[in-house]
Design a protein that fits this description.
Blueprint: E1 9-12, H1 22-37, E2 41-44, H2 58-68, H3 92-104, E3 108-110, H4 115-127, E4 151-153, E5 160-164, E6 168-172, E7 181-183, H5 191-201, E8 206-210, H6 217-227, E9 233-237, E10 240-241, H7 258-263, H8 268-277, H9 291-297, E11 308-309, H10 312-337, H11 351-361, H12 371-379, H13 384-392, H14 397-400, H15 404-419, H16 425-439, H17 443-455, H18 463-470, H19 472-487
Parallel strand pairs: 1-2, 8-9, 10-11
Antiparallel strand pairs: 3-4, 4-7, 5-6
The structure holds one RNA strand of 75 nucleotides.
RNA sequence: GGCCCCAUCGUCUAGCGGCUAGGACACCAGGUUUUCAUCCUGGCAACAGGGGUUCGAUUCCCCUUGGGGUCACCA
């Protein structure tokens, strides 16, 4: 019974209980890729059957996150579609109907035990270091289901072998099959039941989900059979692990909301590329994949079976790469269009000036929110304090033992010479070079003195670059004020 | 504890019986006639351990070890 000819429809089915981190996004991304590759549909379905854990606004947040990364879906709660609604809390009738079929077939029954009683049984099993199986206590004559008790699946334990698109061939014995709850006493279905019904009704072809569901698959297989449903293809994603520990990436381990990455100025394409490469590769040595390449080359069978650690430095590198690849024009456009202000002090500066500044710093930008820190001095004069501080305790070895008076006279000489120069990078370079000869000093001495005067920082883009962007009058004014500081 | 999954440089990974075990990030050194960065060049660095199978194992099998998941009226 192959499902290979069925049209490809994948879904991302988060529960609205919080934000989306990289792990969640990766699951969504892979589903999105599988769908796009086959010209199929990608569906968003909200699994909001636990009203206690539900977080207000989480659904909006999830939708925003997907949108921010360009992972558009064809059907979803806010979009509708042929199998609407796409919110489980609005599909209760559907679950009831399927549940009734099971009851009629003698494959579901009301659970007579109270939660406390079940818990007592569970504790006992645990104390005996045995796995807990409800079916060991299955009532001989269960009460009719009245909707106020949980409805349990009457399982038929057996061994299973099945194929997982990522993990390969898997198998388990009958001892893992149990009577799990289909519908809770509050009337909502459990994930275990609802997702199976929905996937079938929505004609989902591939179920792509995290490793935490692997152990439940045999139970799902048992339920598919009871329901007479053909099971979709199954693909299990290994977990993404935290940077240091081996634990699954979680909020506690510092997993960040993907929207925070967006806000910090990580580019959607870079983020997508990075997340895809966490656990997937095409078998070649390629590292950078455009979205189109990803769609073309992605394959579930090339997804790594083992968990991947999340390395933020690699993300930074990749993002920097994407930024550089974009170039000044495009980056400038993007900055203008962004709802976020990455410019800081430079916010209201002239567009052409901002572009010139961008050209100076684009090579050292790892993410956009670094911009203010990198460019501040282009827009406002450095504080006297920061200039003084650097002159008094310079980190440059050559400057360390130099008296302030000497620095002052070097700066003065530089000022005078620069006064005669054209302020374009080439002429400035030439000017600085001849200045070195005239003053018989080394670049390692003279340049930091000028740099500090201009920027109040010990490292900046190249001096000719900085001078030419700042312009003659501003540069000379800053140098003059630094001279005063050195005199005092 | 039962069951299931996993295991190549610090990290992400290539490898699908024969390779000097390759690439990328990070790190280190040198270069791009000043700093930081970019870019280029070079370097450091891995098959968890033990048994098999085989002419030959990183690769196939078994055991051990280690890591993870699961055993909810959460998903």
């Amino acid at each position: 019974m192959s499902s290979s000819e069925k049209p490809v429809r994948t879904r991302f089915a988060p529960s609205p209980t919080g934000f989306l981190h990289v792990g969640g996004i990766r699951t969504a991304l892979f589903g999105w890729l599988v769908a796009h590759q086959a010209g199929g549909q990608f569906i968003l379905r909200l699994e909001d059957t636990d009203k206690a854990r539900e977080v207000a606004g989480a659904d909006e947040h999830i939708i925003k996150s997907l949108r921010a990364l360009g992972l558009d879906y064809d059907e979803g709660p806010d979009k509708g579609g042929p199998y609407a609604p796409y919110r489980q809390s609005q599909r209760l009738d559907s679950y009831k109907a399927w549940a009734q079929k099971l009851i009629d077939a003698g494959r579901a029954y009301g659970d007579p035990l109270s939660p406390a009683e079940v818990q007592a049984l569970r504790d006992r099993a645990r104390a005996a270091k045995k796995p807990f199986l409800y079916r060991d206590y299955r009532p001989a004559n269960p009460p009719a289901w009245d909707g106020a008790r949980p409805l349990r699946f009457k399982s038929e334990p057996k061994a299973y072998k099945w194929h997982d698109e990522v993990m390969g061939d898997l198998s388990t014995g009958p001892e893992v099959i149990d009577d799990f709850i289909l519908i809770k006493s509050d009337g909502y279905p459990t994930y275990n039941f609802a997702h199976i019904v929905d996937d079938a009704e929505m004609k989902i072809s591939h179920v792509i989900r995290g490793q935490e569901f692997l152990a439940s698959v045999p139970n799902y297989l048992n339920l598919y059979e009871a329901l007479g449903l053909e099971r979709p293809r199954l693909a299990t994603m290994p977990h993404i692990l935290g940077p240091d520990g081996n634990k699954k990436l979680s909020k506690r381990d510092g997993a960040k909301d993907v929207l925070d990455y967006i806000r910090d100025g990580y580019l959607p394409d870079a983020l997508v590329n990075f997340i895809a490469s966490l656990g997937w590769n095409d078998g070649s040595e390629q590292e950078i994949f455009s979205r189109e390449e990803l769609i073309k080359k992605f394959s579930l069978s090339h997804v790594q079976k083992s968990g991947a650690r999340f390395d933020e430095r690699r993300l930074e590198w990749m993002n920097g790469h994407y930024i550089r690849q974009m170039g000044v024009e495009q980056l400038s456009d993007l900055l203008n269009k962004s709802p976020n202000d990455y410019w800081g002090k430079g916010k209201s500066a002239e567009p052409t000036y901002k572009k010139a500044v961008l050209a100076q710093v684009i090579d050292r930008l790892k993410y956009l929110s670094e911009l203010p820190q990198l460019t501040g001095f282009f827009f406002t004069k450095p504080s006297n304090q920061s200039v003084r501080q650097l002159y008094e305790a310079p980190e440059d070895r050559l400057l360390k033992d130099m008296p302030k008076g000497q620095m002052g006279s070097l700066l003065k000489a530089a000022s005078q010479k620069l006064h005669t120069s054209q302020f374009d990078p080439d002429n400035l370079q030439a000017c600085l070079n001849s200045l070195l000869e005239e003053l018989e000093t080394k670049p390692g001495v003279l340049f930091p003195i000028i740099r500090i005067a201009l920027s109040g920082a010990q490292s900046t883009p190249s001096l000719p670059g900085v001078l030419s962007v700042l312009g003659k009058s501003e540069s000379l004014a800053r140098m003059a004020s630094a001279e005063k500081i050195l005199e005092s």
